[in-house]
Amino acid sequence: MTTERKEEDTVAYTVENGIAWVSFNRPEKRNCMSPKLNRQMMRVLDKLEFDDEVGVLVLTGEGSAWSAGMDLKEYFREMEALGLGGTRQAQRESYGWWRRLRWYQKPTIAMVNGWCFGGGYGPLYACDLAFAAEEAQFGLSEINWGILPGGGATKVATDLMPMRKAMYHAMMGENIDGKTAVEWGLVNEALPLAKLKDRVTAVANVLLEKNPVALKATKDAVRRVGEMTYDNAEDYLIRAQEAANSYDNTGRKEGIKQFIDDKTYKPGLGAYDKSKQQG
Ligand code: ACO
């Protein structure tokens, strides 16, 4: 199959045991992001975000790639040919779903199975956690074809990596493997590809045990406070917890009760039993 793949077939997903497995689905094009794929991904994210069957979303890729970045033909050349309006539309569609993913209601995990280039750093960063195959290859290849790492990719590199690593990565256009991506801060862990899905499933299962309101408040807080002064962060975190209480006023009380009164768990060693929570 070539570029004729239908828009609705550019993203695949299944939901199993609380986990939504969402895949970039253009393996024949190394899952590079075309306008069609970007539009379809937004639809899929929309559909899954408030689905009660979904507790965690995993973003992965079909075939040998996670994503080979933006589609140089369909995203750049063909949209640029439509003029500034075309370029801006393409940007809105891609940046739009990355932004949606950064602030997604559910916890998100990037499961990087293979190639991850350029624009792929947008969704990589958007996911709360990232696990990679040791065999995966990460690169800011923009410099190799004559542009700067845009679409947020430079920001991702400088947010996640020390300055010297980010500079080397952006200027040299060399790839790094999964283990180096861990050392440089791009992903949490790297494992042999054959073990990647089991590890991601185990992590997702831990997240499924946690209070979902607290998880959303926590992931947003981690992203927000980095830009704040200590005092602003302190204040934000008070307000964020109080806002979370308005969605779930019983969870933390149950958490305290099961530890202090029932003595059925220890918060230092795991999560309270959500199934016993009233209301
Ligand atoms: N844009 C458009 N088409 C692409 C892209 C892309 N980013 N990546 C792969 N393809 C296409 C190829 O043109 C080829 O199409 P064809 O079958 O019609 O000839 C098909 O996908 C398969 O690609 P190959 O290069 O044959 O696959 P291979 O496994 O040998 O190499 C690799 C994989 C290394 C990922 C290579 O495809 C590549 O370098 N892709 C570009 C990576 C890149 O620099 N992306 C842009 C980053 S910058 C940005 O995102 C802003």
Task: For this entry, give a set of tags.
279 residues; alpha/beta; 6-stranded mixed beta sheet; 15% strand; globular; binds acetyl coenzyme *A
CATH architecture of the largest domain: Alpha-Beta Complex
Q: Enumerate the strands of the largest sheet in spatial order, edge to edge or round the barrel.
A: 1-2-3-5-7-10
So what's the CATH class of the largest domain?
Alpha Beta
- The tally of beta strands, per DSSP, is 10
The parts where pLDDT drops under 50 for at least 5 residues are none
Give the distance, in angstroms, between the N- and C-terminal Cα atoms.
Answer: 50 Å
The CATH topology of the largest domain, please? 2-enoyl-CoA Hydratase, Chain A, domain 1
What does this structure look like?
The protein contains twelve helices and ten strands. The radius of gyration is 20 Å and the shape is globular. The protein has helices at 35-49, 72-80, 84-102, 121-126, 142-145, 153-160, 163-172, 178-183, 193-209, 212-225, 230-247, 251-260, and strands at 11-16, 19-24, 56-61, 65-67, 108-112, 115-117, 129-133, 137-139, 176-177, 189-191. It has 279 residues and is an alpha/beta fold. The strands form two sheets. A six-stranded mixed sheet has the order 1-2-3-5-7-10, sandwiched between helices. The longest helix is centred in the middle third of the chain and has 19 residues, at 84-102. The mean pLDDT is 96. The protein folds into two domains: 7-208, 2-enoyl-CoA Hydratase, Chain A, domain 1; 212-276. It starts with 10 loop residues before the first strand and ends in a 19-residue tail after the last helix. Bound molecules: acetyl coenzyme *A. The site of acetyl coenzyme *A has 19 residues, from helix 2 and strand 6.
